[in-house]
Write a structure and sequence with these properties.
mainly alpha, globular
Length: 137
């Protein structure tokens, strides 16, 4: 890595393991060689981006934003598991609901005794169960 000698003591600068591409550069190199991984990464980042927009918004998410999140999760699940998009929609809806509950729990102070925790867990279980059914159809 250029400039490595400025960061590491001279006795460590010669280690080959420290010259490997790191982080984003390594990810770009891996994704450039595999279109399926590149598409999966795009879909993963897409749902994450939509969720962060909702999470950091001024108040409750509007229905259109929630639908964008559900659609992004649905696209990721369908692509990742090779399932029909309609078959994974319920899993995506339940996962989005779990995120909504979790975000509210955090906004409200993240009380470990909150009654929201079992509701979030139940939404996650429903999501995973629906995904399991969709994948094994």
């Amino acid at each position: 890595m250029p400039g490595l000698g400025h960061v590491l003591p001279p006795r460590m600068a010669g280690f080959p393991a420290l010259r490997r591409p790191t982080g984003a550069a390594h990810l770009r190199a891996v994704l450039a060689t595999n279109p399926r991984r590149r598409q999966a990464a795009r879909l993963e980042v897409d749902w994450w981006r939509v969720h962060r927009e909702i999470q950091r918004g001024p108040g409750p998410a509007d229905p259109a934003a929630v639908e964008r999140l559900v659609a992004a999760l649905q696209a990721l699940y369908a692509y990742t598991y090779g399932a029909a998009p309609d078959a994974v929609r319920l899993a995506a809806q339940e996962r989005a609901e779990a995120m909504r509950l979790s975000d509210g729990w955090v906004r409200d102070g993240a009380d470990p005794a909150s009654p929201v925790i079992p509701r979030e867990r139940a939404a996650l279980v429903r999501s995973y169960a629906a995904l399991l059914v969709a994948v094994h159809q």
